Predict the structure.
Amino acid sequence: MMPNTDQVFRLNWESFSSGDKRADSGSDLSIFIGDLAPDVTDALLYETFSGRYPSVKGAKVVFDSNTGCSKGYGFVRFGDESESTRVMSEMNGQY
């Protein structure tokens, strides 16, 4: 359960266009987290996943640069592929 919210969030694999490059690709696996409540922060998203999955490396909520409001989605990075796969099945559709 996402603390202090009543909203379900969605999970999906993160993807990059073919032109995008990441310096550390191969070492990190990011998962898209959608339908986040407006008050969810990077720290809250990180705590929600890192308490259950030790390979979490970071979490980022995406904010609108014009309004400063959350866009309702973010990403969680993992260092372990099997754990990120497990997250997709265990956490998809959870509050």
